[in-house]
Specification:
Layout: H1 5-10, E1 17-24, E2 27-37, H2 44-47, H3 60-71
Antiparallel strand pairs: 1-2
Length: 78
C-alpha cells in the first residue's frame, strides 16, 4: 500500500513504522503505534564493523563482480 508523503509526514510515519488496518462500517481505519518499529533507529557508527569477516581481503572490484553475478542469479563460485 502506498500512502501519500503528505500523510506520512503529517503523522511522522517514517521507514519501519508498523501500521494496523481495521475494517470498520464506514471504511478502513489505519492506526499506528509510535513505539512499534520494525527496526530500532540506529546510526551508521552503531553498526559499522559489526559483521566480522574471517578470510583474505577482498577488493571492491571482486565485491562488485560477486554482486553482479548474484543479481544475474548465478553463484559466485561457478
Amino acid at each position: 500500500m502506498v500512502l501519500p508523503s503528505s500523510i506520512r509526514k503529517a503523522h511522522n510515519w517514517g521507514p519501519g513504522t508498523e501500521l494496523t488496518l481495521e475494517d470498520t462500517p464506514s471504511g478502513v481505519l489505519i492506526r499506528s503505534n509510535d513505539k512499534s518499529r520494525l527496526f530500532p533507529e540506529t546510526r551508521f557508527d552503531d553498526v559499522f564493523g559489526s559483521l566480522k569477516y574471517d578470510g583474505p581481503p577482498v577488493s571492491l572490484d571482486d565485491m562488485d563482480k560477486a554482486i553482479e553475478l548474484m543479481l544475474r542469479g548465478k553463484n559466485a563460485g561457478d
